[in-house]
Design goal:
heterodimer, A: 308 residues, alpha+beta, six-stranded antiparallel sheet, 6 strands, disordered N terminus, B: alpha+beta, Threonyl-tRNA Synthetase, Chain A, domain 2, 2 domains, five-stranded antiparallel sheet, two-stranded antiparallel sheet, 5 helices, 51% helix
Amino acid sequence: MISEFPPTAADPIPPSAPGPQPARTRTALLWTATVGLLVLAGLLVQEHVETLRTVQQQGLPLAAEVATLERRLAILTKQTQALRLTGDIAGGTMEEDLRLFVLPDGGDGARAIALLNAVLDAWRADGRVKDVTPIVLGEPEPAAVEGVSDPLVRRTLRFTMQLRDEDLGDFTTLLRLAGLLTVEDALTSENRAELLALSEAGNPEQITSLSRFLSTNLLAYLRDPLVAEERLLAAFPTDALTAFLRTFERTSLIRDGMALARGPVGTVLLKEKLWPLPFLSVSSLEVEEKGGGWVRVEVQALAYGRGK
Amino acid sequence: MPNTSPAIPSDEPAFANLLPGLAMPIFVFAAVLVSLLSLSLSIVLPALAQVEVNGELRDVHSLRLTQERMNAELLHREQERDRGLLSVTDPAYDALKLCRGDLLPLAALREQLRNLAASLVSEQDTIAIGQYIFTPGVEDTLTLTGDVRNVGPRSMTVLAQFTEELRRLPSVTAVKPPLFQRVEESDGSMHSPFRIVLTLR
């Protein structure tokens, strides 16, 4: 018979039989452990979901990218090896041209004066220039250029002239070309990146043809681009490269440069051996309308050279 | 006589009575579930979380490390190739070219400005640009000096219109407007001289 009354001190529960209190504790412990385990299970399920999501969202794109990178690395390695095998193609001559003519030691301004004299004489003979003032060449002064530790010097160069309207373009193009040596120097960074990307799509060993194209003397290219372009197209015969070369020829520097190089100025530059031109940087260029097809041009430029 | 029929027991004690009985099976279920999930996490999931690249299975972490290493290697190879491509590698020359940039095709811009001036008014030489001063720098500027004439009292309106059109040119990033003034000469003619500074792209 079950007692209807709670046990009293006079009616103790025998110690051997489990009472309701330990059973309740055991149940509570079991449930607590169960809840803990279920929470852990939830976290583990979440970990599974996260891992699988990561694989889907990052793993697959990463795998695709790594495969592309591996292919590109293989191409670049082959290109580098090909360039190393052929060695320095035109480097020696170009380095010498740079040192002697483009950035002469001590900022020798003689070549800049010779260039202007020769071009102005040619124009004067055709009645295309008049009232040229003496060219004022300043003393060499140190030039600080960001990121350059080598000592550089510069000299100001100033003169005024009256020029036929239609020759203003040639004159500014001459200033734009001053100091450029090769086709590579006329490429913008976007042009360059595009050309290299096109080269990576072809045979990696033909990179030497691209190197030859980039090292082509700029004046020679401007006078006759076909020779250099055909050699390059023979190495990378793609429509994309043909389209690139047509676009490159239409950039303002190349288009205007071609007009200059194929005209009387180009002939003078070749005849008087004035190419490569000294490095000039325009400080100020004033153009004043004089009427009758003439403009007065006042030029102030800096001729750079290496310090001693 | 009072109603002695037994009270209907509520659900609460019945549910409370179920808890001790359910505790062990649910605990066992949870323990087995956690064990299986742990096993899956350490054995099954790593196998599932691998992606095949060129016939080789790799996990995301290793792919990320590979990507970083390859990007660094690619950069190095690119620089090596670029050095091999260049016929001249001279830091001073490269810096000077970069610093100078490309000189503005001034002749083409002058032609464009002259055409713009001519297109605004039917009378020829109404907007006469007399001088162009090009100054290269961090921002290239082109200063135009000239005069608006032959349109009587409308000279200032035409000048304002010209200034607005200059702002719309793709090669122009900013325009410092002129002083809008109308000068009346002794013969009664009116004109508006101007000096406009264009900041070029």
